Amino acid sequence: MKGRRTRRRPPPKLLGIHGVVLRSADPTALARRWTELTGMEPLRRSRREIVLGGPELFVILRKGGADAVEELHLAVKEIAATRRRTRPDPLGGDSWEKSLGAFSLIVREFRRPPSLRWRRKRRG
Asked: pTM for the whole thing?
């Protein structure tokens, strides 16, 4: 029908930013400084990246060229409100990703426990 308007759904309720992925020429030095400033301890390390924090709040530092933001992760109350196709992810949520030019936006609703890679080992 001509002239018919589609109703826009309201955006999902944003709970907060829960993760960021940064590219750095020296991720080890950046991780050391980040830990000094925030107290976020490394969860895991590989040759390519260092993960600080945990599934509820994390920083991933990836080895690369010029320093830049690669990904921004947002937590929402209900992802169905976005009407986008989602996929289960290792953080325990359903998420979708959208490229915004220089970086990607990942929107996630937490629904289940995170995978073992995202859980801290118990001490003691």
From this structure: 0.85
